[in-house]
UniProtKB/TrEMBL annotation:
Coiled coil: none annotated. This is VOC family protein. InterPro entries: 3_dmu_93_MTrfase (IPR009725), Glyas_Bleomycin-R_OHBP_Dase (IPR029068), PhnB-like (IPR028973). SUPFAM superfamilies: Glyoxalase/Bleomycin resistance protein/Dihydroxybiphenyl dioxygenase (SSF54593). It holds the Pfam family 3-dmu-9_3-mt. It comes from the Bacteria. It comes from Actinocrinis puniceicyclus. Residues 7-132 form the PhnB-like domain.
Length: 136
């Protein structure tokens, strides 16, 4: 397995069986986004055959890595670490918020919170936390 990124520091997302579904969903949300590379577990494990051993994908020029963890764990994603997206216009912000909130959880509904004229915070269906901000 040899998947690398061009960045020195890369956000790494650990899933338990739905890494590929999450990655495909995220790539569908951003123009120019793509799956850069993917390696899957084989029949000899240690993960379930066909699940993501390691993948790299790119969103808005930023690379991310993800896996399907072969180990069960008692923790998941937390809003204490989130992906912050500067949206160019309200249409982009509204579209992303609606897509990410579907089957997810709104932490802060879209609104004017003083620090931004339009901002929203959501945990998506996979538990990843996203802050969406309308650029000035």
């Amino acid at each position: 397995m040899q998947i690398t990124t061009t960045q020195k520091i890369t956000t790494f997302l650990m899933f338990e069986g739905d890494a590929e579904e999450a990655m495909a969903f995220y790539v569908s949300l951003f123009d120019g986004a793509e799956v850069v590379g993917i390696t899957r577990y084989g029949a000899d494990g240690p993960g379930k055959e066909g699940t993501v051993q390691l993948a790299t994908f790119s969103l808005a020029g930023q690379q991310f890595m993800c896996i399907d963890s072969p180990a069960q764990h008692d923790f998941g994603f937390t809003p204490a670490v989130s992906l912050f997206v500067q949206c160019d216009d309200e249409a982009e912000l509204d579209r992303l918020f609606a897509a990410l909130a579907e089957r997810g959880t709104e932490l802060m509904p879209l609104g004017d919170y003083g620090f931004s004229r339009k901002f929203g915070w959501v945990n998506d269906q996979f538990g990843v936390s996203w802050q969406l901000n309308l650029s000035a």
